């Protein structure tokens, strides 16, 4: 199988080669999340609020996935960049196994605390019921979900960016098809020349969760077949998935600790912010949930650039080409900035029309219009942040992520939000500005760490 040498040739072409398939895959997956929220929005605003609360709770345990996942990016890409395929294979095997074990811990935590946390955010019984209905089945499939992330990461880190795209497309398409079938008993669909009534199972918000776990599991099984069957540059062994390697596992849990701490501080701040949003009622939570899905769609190309760029940076650092790694990061920042300027302009100009796609509840729409116009400002700063951050994810120097999230979330965003809500009693629009200020502070912090240059000396293999 022909592979691309990311340590040679055009930096921009390599970046696009690695990032575009990743962008498209994540875009398709996030587009599903958007479509999912569109269907859920047709159930009730309580259902939207319930799913929003569950996702916020899930982010806390997703920290474990972040720790191991960020460690694996630098370990796999650097070992592959060195040309050591045996070591690369062993790291991939260990990442799949170790992450699945850690995911069991995450599932137990969610099972024990999902209902108390749901009540913490909203006492509305219909909202709490939606959290439980959507969340319980998702809990049982967390190990599969975490491991599916590893499969995609492993393929990207060895320069095979197309197969993760196909896997994510398969998962997303299945989700889009299964969602309305599982959610509604009957749904009339009229679009252009299409006009028919769809008969389904009427499972409501539980059906949305069921569609998700089926789709993720199916894509994961295909991904494992690719890795086990040698359908890519590296072939792993099934029997070695049942062994643990203390040295590799220690690196998996320690290299990404700053990322995990970063993710934890960020997600805990989301807890606080969601609680502040809840002060304005269940409708405000529903509006925030829709807004987060829309912003997620805008962020996906930036994440694609960051992940593709991180792989290239890792391989070039493994090959001792520091200048080339740095040029890759700035190319990612420039491309991300161009996209963000375009996408944020569209979201700003058509915020009302975008909100109306998800709901016809005017109380949600009226909150959502200014929310979108304010939050899209952040994408410009995040584009630059994600581009430069490829230097840290590729090198394994993850400490800047922790510092930037503490500064952005806890020193800037949260204090600003608390002051506007509790002391000044301002409208919810001021709460949205806390996100923007936090993202600006994070971007400045990341740039300061870049200028210090410690990432140039970092090695993990």
TrEMBL record:
Keyword Hydrolase assigned to the entry: answer is no
Does the record's keyword annotation contain Membrane?
yes
Q: Pfam families, from UniProt?
A: MatE (PF01554)
Q: Which GO terms describe its cellular component?
A: plasma membrane
Q: Which GO terms describe its biological process?
A: monoatomic ion transport
- Secretion signal: which residues? none
As for membrane topology, the entry says: Multi-pass membrane protein
UniProt xrefs under CDD domains: MATE_NorM_like
Q: Which residues are listed as membrane-spanning?
A: 12-32, 38-61, 96-114, 134-153, 165-184, 204-228, 272-292, 298-317, 329-350, 362-389, 401-424, 430-450
Q: Which Gene Ontology terms cover its molecular function?
A: antiporter activity; xenobiotic transmembrane transporter activity
Which UniProt keywords are listed? Antiport, Cell membrane, Ion transport, Membrane, Transmembrane, Transmembrane helix, Transport
Q: Which InterPro entries match?
A: MATE_fam, MATE_MdtK, MdtK-like
Localization, per the record, is: Cell membrane
By sequence similarity, the record places it as follows: Belongs to the multi antimicrobial extrusion (MATE) (TC 2.A.66.1) family.
Q: Which PANTHER family match?
A: FMN_FAD EXPORTER YEEO-RELATED (PTHR43298:SF2), MULTIDRUG RESISTANCE PROTEIN NORM-RELATED (PTHR43298)
Q: What does this protein do?
A: Multidrug efflux pump.
Q: What is this protein called?
A: Probable multidrug resistance protein NorM
Organism the protein comes from: Helicovermis profundi
Q: What is the lineage of its organism?
A: Bacteria, Bacillati, Bacillota, Clostridia, Helicovermis
């Amino acid at each position: 199988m022909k592979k691309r040498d990311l340590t040679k040739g055009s930096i921009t072409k390599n970046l696009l080669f690695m990032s575009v398939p990743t962008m498209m895959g994540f875009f398709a997956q996030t587009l599903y999340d958007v479509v999912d929220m569109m269907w859920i929005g047709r159930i009730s605003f309580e259902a939207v609020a319930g799913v929003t609360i569950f996702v916020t709770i899930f982010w806390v345990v997703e920290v474990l996935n972040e720790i191991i996942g960020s460690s694996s990016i630098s370990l796999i890409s650097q070992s592959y960049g060195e040309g050591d395929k045996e070591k690369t294979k062993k790291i991939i095997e260990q990442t799949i196994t170790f992450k699945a074990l850690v995911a069991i811990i995450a599932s137990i935590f969610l099972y024990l605390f999902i209902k108390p946390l749901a009540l913490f955010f909203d006492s509305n019984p219909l909202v709490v019921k939606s959290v439980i209905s959507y969340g319980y089945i998702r809990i049982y499939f967390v190990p599969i979900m975490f491991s599916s992330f590893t499969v995609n990461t492993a393929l990207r880190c060895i320069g095979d960016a197309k197969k993760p795209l196909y896997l994510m497309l398969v998962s997303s398409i299945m989700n889009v098809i299964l969602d309305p079938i599982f959610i509604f008993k009957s749904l009339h669909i009229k679009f252009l020349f299409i006009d028919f009534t769809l008969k389904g199972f009427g499972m409501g918000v539980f059906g949305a969760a069921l569609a998700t776990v089926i789709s993720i599991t199916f894509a994961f099984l295909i991904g494992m077949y690719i890795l086990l069957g040698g359908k890519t540059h590296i072939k792993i062994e099934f029997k070695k998935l049942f062994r643990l390697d203390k040295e590799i596992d220690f690196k998996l849990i320690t290299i990404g600790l700053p990322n995990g701490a970063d993710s934890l501080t960020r997600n805990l701040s989301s807890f606080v912010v969601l609680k502040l949003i809840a002060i304005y009622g269940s409708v405000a939570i529903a509006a925030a949930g829709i807004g987060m899905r829309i912003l997620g769609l805008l962020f996906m190309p930036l994440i694609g650039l960051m992940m593709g760029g991180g792989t290239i940076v890792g391989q070039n650092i493994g090959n001792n080409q520091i200048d080339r790694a740095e040029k890759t990061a700035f190319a990612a920042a420039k491309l991300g900035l161009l996209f963000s300027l375009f996408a944020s302009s569209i979201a700003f100009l058509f915020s009302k029309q975008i909100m109306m796609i998800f709901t016809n509840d005017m109380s949600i729409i009226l909150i959502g219009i200014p929310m979108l116009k304010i939050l899209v400002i952040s994408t410009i700063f995040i584009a630059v942040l994600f581009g430069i951050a490829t230097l840290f994810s590729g090198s394994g120097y993850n400490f800047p992520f922790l510092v930037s999230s503490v500064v952005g979330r806890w020193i800037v965003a949260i204090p600003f939000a608390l002051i506007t809500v509790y002391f000044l009693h301002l409208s919810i629009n001021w709460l949205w500005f806390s996100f923007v200020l936090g993202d600006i502070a994070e971007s400045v912090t990341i740039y300061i760490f870049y200028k210090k240059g410690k990432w140039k000396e970092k090695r993990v293999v």
